[in-house]
Amino acid sequence: MTKWRYLLALMLSLLLLACSHEQESTLTPTLMAAQKQFETVEQRDLHIAEMRTNHMNLLKHKRDRTVYQGIRTPKHSLNGCIDCHVPVPTVNKTVKHTDSEHFCMTCHVELAVKIDCFQCHADRPPVSEKAVKP
Amino acid sequence: MQRTDFHEIEISSRRFYSILVTLAGVLVAAAYAFFYMESQGHFVTGMNNQVVWGLPHVVAIFLIVTASGAANVASLGSVFNKPAYQPYGRISLVLAMSLLLGGLLVILLDLGHADRLIIAMTHFNFDSVFAWNILLYSGFFVIMGLYLWSIMDRTATAKRCYQPLAYLGFVWRFILTAGTGSIFGVLVAREYYDILMMAPLFIASSYLIGTACFSLVLLLLYKLEGRQLSEVIKSRLAISLCLCIVVVTLIELARHLLNYFIMGYTAVEVFVLRDAGAVTLMFWLGQVVIGLVLPIILLYLPSVKRSRLAIASTLIMLGGLCQLYVIIIGGQLQPLRLFPNAVTETSGNLDIAYSASLPELMLSLGGVAITLFVFTIAVKVLRLTPANS
Amino acid sequence: MTNVNLIDRYRRKFLGGIAAATGAALAPGILLREAGANPHDQAVSNKVRWGMLIDTNKLKDGGDAMVAACKKEHGWGDEPNSKPEQQGQWARKVTFQDKASDHKVSLPVMCQHCEEPPCVDVCPTGASFKRDDGIVLVDKHICIGCRYCMTACPYNARSFVHENLENQKPHSPRGIGTVESCNLCVHRVDAGKQPACVEAAADAVIFGDLNDPSSTISKSLKKYEAQQIRADLGLNTGVRYWGI
């Protein structure tokens, strides 16, 4: 795992070098806004900092606890992430994991890190049955 | 004892590269088939929820079993101390490794998640025969590689290691083939696979098919060089083939009789040997007639001397392929009986049938092609071929 | 670690006491976990073994409703590209007719959640596993799609996802290149609920803890002997039947 982290760091710093003359915004792609917002900026920044560096470890840890021990608390649950970060599908628009605007994909496409989470996991929040019927 | 010199095969570059290009063509097609299956999913194959292992597995296991048998010539030279075989030990080992590589690649590329190879290497369930086989196959490369080094290197260290490695290689091959047979043997739900007979059957078959494959490849190599293979080795190979045919026939006979009369697996025996259509035909015509009866007649008849070894070897390999098809596909085609002594019908999708699709065929051929590709390069760049025998 | 375990054990015992007290007031079968208060955050324990008892005599439709409920809950069986024999199939209806008596019986067949599951023994990576509470399931994160478990299963209970899927149920992840089967609605059981098929045939099916001698299922099993499919294999299945 650490190897990958170094590789990521290397790639990031290369990217940094390459873009150093450009604006800062090229470093962090614009992500979709979350459905729920934190009450304070500090909470939000803490969440961003933790998730940016650690989301894969947290998700993996949680995944094993869920699959093997049946622990299904909301904390670090992938469904929880999706429910907040991906909009609920509407009649007009569904954001899928194949779209680059999908919250997870924006960065993963940018960094060329392929994930297979969504081969099995739902990539969008469930549509409540009442909402579908007009 | 006469010293044997070894050389790289003497064929023209044009010929060498045309062989490689032809094989590369097959490999490109196989790679395309793999990516097609990988991106679309297995619905593009003939495999389904009943027949979960298809043609790629038949060919892969054929190559693996052949690999173990092809190294037999090396063992005969060292472990059994038969000097006549010693000059061919190098070719035998390289052929074995190439065959195993081809077989493993096909199995790997047919996985639902070939991209998770690393998981297969890091997560081991030691209750699983399959997991043990992964270790056995990896070990095969290492041991055969070291064994080849001990044959080819002239240092004192290599000479010292030669005998122990030869014995280790022999034992390892034995376990590897038994392990491959046990993949099927441990399946309690499938009556056609009984542990008692699967391991010995696979060992015997591997000797037969492996020796046949080696004979054919050796004959081809000599033909490419425009040389004649010595009659001594030819007749020795023919005799071992005859012996192996007798042993395989006896074990197969014992297996079917045991299944039918003693184990009580009458239904599945009747199914495979009488009612399974193409599989039944493959058993009687492919495995029995082409794979066992015709070759032994050919090898014993004195009148058809010329190229009889080549023809017999080809037939034996075809028969071996049929044998594995009957075992793997035939065993899965038999419906599982949930309720003995009752007529069962299911509302769900349980039609049991199998026919290979084009991508599967291409992937399987790719396994054969990679074997030949690696082997061709090896005999061209390494001193494997005896120059004066 | 041991400390935590002790605390856990104590807490479970305590909560179990409360649960038993309240449980007595509730109808049997509704309360499933000893700690009914907040089951989400507790690791499953091997003190429990979930099981199911299906009374085929009371099943009016031979299990069609149960199969349909499973399909709806997990979303299998409508893969657009797969041929019929390649479709997902977690449960199916089997009808058998005894040769001697002509007696016809229909029953739903799904993963039998064996105590000694052959699929778990053969899996090379350990993806096919049995949870502490007896539920047999596939960890699709480490499933490499070799299908060895499918050949090993005596019940034909497993299927392989033959194509790319889209819009899966959030509570039931399933995807290309992995093997799947009935997981006893593990997400519902973990939340203290009953499997979907049990709810669909509440009169005919009892779900509960086989290890608890006072549970409805254990008592029922004691009253009349229930059969296992292929009992000769000695797998000690968690799914039992009456009337086969």
UniProtKB/TrEMBL annotation, chain B:
It is found in: Cell membrane. It comes from the Bacteria. The chain crosses the membrane at residues 16-37, 57-79, 91-109, 129-149, 170-189, 201-224, 236-258, 278-302, 309-330, 361-382. InterPro entries: Electron_transfer_protein (IPR052049), NrfD-like (IPR005614). Keywords: Cell membrane, Membrane, Transmembrane, Transmembrane helix. It is a multi-pass membrane protein. GO terms for cellular component: plasma membrane. Belongs to the NrfD family. This is Molybdopterin oxidoreductase. It comes from Leucothrix arctica.
From TrEMBL, chain C:
The lineage of its organism: Bacteria, Pseudomonadati, Pseudomonadota, Gammaproteobacteria, Thiotrichales. The keyword ATP-binding does not apply. This is 4Fe-4S ferredoxin. Pfam families: Fer4_11. Signal peptide: none annotated. GO terms for molecular function: 4 iron, 4 sulfur cluster binding; metal ion binding. It comes from Leucothrix arctica. Keywords: 4Fe-4S, Iron, Iron-sulfur, Metal-binding. Residues 134-163 form the 4Fe-4S ferredoxin-type domain. Coiled coil: none annotated.
